[in-house]
Each structure stands twice: as C-alpha cells, then as structure tokens.
Amino acid sequence: MRLRNLLVGFWLVCVVVPVYAAPPMGGAGWKGSLGLGVLWKAEPYKGEDDTILPIPLINLKYQRFYIQGFTVGYKLIDELEGSIDIIAQPRLEGYDASDNVYFEGMEDRDYSMDVGLALNAQFGRVLFNVTAVSDVLGYNDGQEVSASVGYNFVFGGTGQSVLRVTPTLGLKWLSANLVDYYYGVRAEEARLDRPQYTGDAGFNGTVGVMANYFFTTHSGISAGIQYEAFGNEIADSPLLEKDYSLRVFAGYSWMF
C-alpha cells in the first residue's frame, strides 16, 4: 500500500503543478525542472488514513515531446497562444482489498492507462485547459473530460525574486464505467454495512491555487492546494467517508 500511495501522490502533485509554472527557458536539448516535495493527501475511502509522502517533481521537455510527472505528451500543434497535445497517463486510483478491513470480500480495483487529447491555451495571463482521455487497458473502460481556467498573477521582476500565484477553477466529467469501477459495489461484494451500489456518470468540481517563488532563474520553491468536490454519483458510494479529495504540497525545484 505504501508504494501505491507514493505513486498516487506523485501523480497528483504532477497534476497540480502546471507546465506554465516554470519560467521560460531557451536553448536546445532537454529543458525543464527536477525537484523534491512533500505531499499531504486526505483519503476519501473508508478505513484509509490520510497520507504524508515525499514526492519527486519532474517537468521535462524536448522540442514537442514532454514528460510531466507520469504524463507523457507530444504537441501535435504548438503555437504561441497554445497547443493541442496527445497524452498518455496512468490512472492511479483504486485499492488493494487486502489492505483494508472494510474492503474484505471485494475485488481489487486496479491502476490503468488513459490516452487522449489535451488543449492548452493562454491569452495574456488567463489560462485554459481541456482534456479528454479514455482507458486503453480495459480495466475500467471509462472516459474522463475535464476543463479548467486559471489566472497567472505575477509579482516582481523577470529574473530573480519572482512570485507567481495561479488560482484555478475546473469541472470534471467522469463516465458511468469509470465511476462504477472505482466506487461501485457489485452484488457479490455487498454485505450489511456495504450495500450494492452502481455508479453513474457525473461531475466533480475543482478549485485550487498554485504559488511559485523563484530565487533565481534556476532555483525556486512551490506550494499548492487542490480541492475536488465529488458529485452525488461518487459521494453516495458506501465506500467513501468523505465527499471530497484534498491535497496540499510544497517542494523545491532546480530549473535548467
């Protein structure tokens, strides 16, 4: 379970830390940042303790190809105002039933892999992102479509001692197959304190804020918080004790 939490935490931080948070860098070859952070995550499943994990921070780019955490992407269209990318990323949700007394008698819900498209656009300091992905390994056979908007507040100069604060609002649609796989209870898994539950398609809302402070053009710290409110289709699951997900992190990165 420790490895599962570490992988999930790593992926969550990489989702929270947007590519646009790093300052622009010139030159050929690989560009980006490497660092280390600490994540606190509130676990929504029953019987799961909140976790605190050390997290590596990875954000690398080579021409149109990039790696952001566990997400691998290629920019099909790359313009000054934005890009259209093809992306592949793991879905690090689910649980090992043997790790939790409440889940005894249930089948494990496994990780999977999503592939899809991402649209990123920036107009001045306003940032837009739309992502649509689908399971390609056949574990949950689900889809997810998400959209977010953010605003980049910049304080300070263009070199050293620059503070960037980026609040974001988002909406996420999850298909019935996806919700049912990770939050449903099958007939053969049901018991008195865990009734049968069939998940349906629904929406989650997200709100967050990301802050980056750059000491120099190559060194900086970052911190962020992201809150995701589950729609009724997920919140009503008997597997959950929270109707939200919350994560907070802070870290240091070296940019090159």
From TrEMBL:
GO cellular component: cell outer membrane
Pfam families for this protein: MipA
InterPro entries: MipA (IPR010583)
Localization per Swiss-Prot or TrEMBL: Cell outer membrane
Keywords of this entry: Cell outer membrane, Membrane, Signal
Family: Belongs to the MipA/OmpV family.
Protein name: Outer membrane protein V
Annotated organism of origin: Beggiatoa alba B18LD
